[in-house]
Design brief:
Distance between the termini: 34 Å
Enzyme class: oxidoreductase
Largest sheet: 9 strands, mixed
Strand content: 15-25%
GO molecular function: glucose-6-phosphate 3-dehydrogenase activity; nucleotide binding
Radius of gyration: 21 Å
Order of helices and strands: EHEHHHEHEHEHEHHHEEEEEEEHHHE
InterPro entries: Gfo/Idh/MocA-like_OxRdtase_N, Gfo/Idh/MocA_oxidoreduct, GFO_IDH_MocA-like_dom, NAD(P)-bd_dom_sf
Number of helices: 13
Keywords: Oxidoreductase
CATH superfamily of the largest domain: Dihydrodipicolinate Reductase, domain 2
Number of domains: 2
CATH class of the largest domain: Alpha Beta
Bound molecules: nicotinamide-adenine-dinucleotide
Protein name: Glucose-6-phosphate 3-dehydrogenase
């Protein structure tokens, strides 16, 4: 396929966030450019204008395209001729800033790849959804775990009925890095994640349970009905939850659990999901992402390895691989798969074709709203002694 057909050129990327000392911005730049379909052209890399500009050479961004703020960037880029200006904006800043940056980018006509949770609160998410619906932009949310080949494989197996009816979805995202009050030591990533003014109403649940919940929705397509949740801050002085469990009732009668922890000794980035169907069960772990375990009673357990040439691989599973089996692929490649799917849509849009904003292989603005609804209802339920509250889903939204 020609480069970004039918556009037939690289897409020009702008990065917001990612300045010196930050985490995920660099991952966005690597993932977006991994397949040579995009080039990082412009950036507003930090909340501090000087640092924003001084971080630009680290990314090879020219001085003329290194901006002191996202406002200046959108303004400057909008004034450039069409064949020079950026095509999309990637947002890798703390949660409280996502909404304003994303809304301004969409209103300026740029495609957006926004990190999760999509916004600070649900009201912002609903408002952003409306803005996106009133535009023709491509809007992706970087729930990057959906990009793993064996996650897409599992999804296709489940949606084609191989597991039978889905009865249970257990996902957990277990970390240990906030076991101590790291925020009191001014550690950058801990400081804003534990600050309700920057993180939002939830801590661990906003930061990582959203990924675990999204993964269950993505892999099964089963529609949620209601949720009951317990959240707790175990570390003294912490203002937001660092541990919690949600129980979910699904419309088809299935039950789910989502557990998130930031305080489990020795646990690194252990996102795991198990799905029980009437005909079989599946298990996938992001710390060992090139294996998917399929089990049926009375039969030997099967380990599916990530092998693009194996006859057991589905189209979307094989299509998400870059390397032959046994050559480990992981975080960057999966992140890049979210980007490549969004690029297909961006190229179509640039060529004047109509794109579907809802039915996409990459997580989109509707998934972003679902994530925010999940966070809000978990926080509200926990505050009300784990009361059962409704859990709306994207299909119910026009
Ligand atoms: N998808 C994932 O796997 C994943 C992983 C980590 C973080 N995240 C999400 O990515 C976002 C950033 O997290 P992080 O850990 O990289 O944070 P970080 O604190 O390491 O970096 C944030 C960067 O954003 C910059 N920034 C803040 N406000 C800005 C503004 N108004 N304009 C321009 N730059 C601004 C900061 O200066 C910093 O460079 C969060 O929303 C987080 O939830 C997602």
């Amino acid at each position: 396929m020609a480069l970004n057909e039918p556009l037939n050129r690289k897409l020009r990327m702008a990065l917001v966030g990612g300045g010196a000392g930050s985490f995920i911005g660099r991952v966005h730049s690597i993932a977006a450019c991994l397949d040579n379909r995009a080039v990082l052209t412009a950036g507003a890399l930090s909340s501090n204008p000087e640092r924003a500009k001084s971080s630009a050479p680290d990314y090879g961004i020219a001085d003329s395209r290194a901006y002191g703020s996202y406002e200046a960037m959108l303004d400057g880029e909008s004034k450039l001729p069409e064949d020079e200006r950026i095509d999309f904006v990637s947002i890798a800043t703390p949660n409280h800033t996502h909404f304003e940056v994303a809304r301004a980018a969409v209103e300026a006509g740029f495609n957006v790849v926004c990190d999760k949770p999509m916004t600070f609160d649900l009201a912002q998410a609903e408002s952003l959804l409306e803005t996106v619906q009133n535009s023709d932009v491509v809007f992706a949310v970087s729930h990057n775990y959906t990009g793993y080949p064996l996650v897409r494989q599992a999804r296709e197996m489940i949606l084609s009925g191989e597991l039978g009816e889905i009865n249970a979805i257990r996902s957990q995202y277990i970390q240990g890095w906030l076991r101590t009050q790291l925020e009191a030591e001014d550690q950058k990533q801990a400081a804003w994640r534990t600050d309700p003014a920057k993180s939002g109403a939830a801590g661990a649940f906003g930061d990582i349970a959203t990924h675990a919940y999204n993964l269950g929705r993505y892999m099964t397509g089963v529609l949620p009905d209601s949720v009951s949740c317990h959240l707790k801050a175990f570390v003294e002085g912490r203002k937001l939850d660092d541990y919690g469990t949600a129980v979910i009732r699904y419309e088809n009668g299935a039950l789910g659990t989502v557990t998130a922890s930031q305080i489990s000794h020795g646990r690194e980035n252990d996102l795991e999901i198990e799905i029980d169907g009437t005909k079989g069960s599946l298990r996938w772990r992001q710390e060992n992402p090139n294996e998917l375990i399929y089990r049926q009673n009375g039969k030997a357990h099967q380990i599916y390895t990530r092998d693009p040439n194996a006859e057991y691989m589905t189209g979307s599973g094989a299509g998400a691989c870059r390397l032959p089996s046994g050559h480990p692929e992981a975080f960057f490649e999966a992140f890049a798969n979210v980007y490549t799917a969004a690029f297909d849509a961006m190229a179509k849009r640039a060529a004047g074709e109509k794109i579907d904003q809802r039915d996409t292989i990459y997580p989109n603005v509707y998934d972003g709203v679902e994530g925010m609804y999940f966070i809000q209802q978990c926080v509200n339920s926990s505050a009300d002694n784990a009361a059962w509250l409704p859990l709306k889903h994207a299909a119910a939204r026009k």
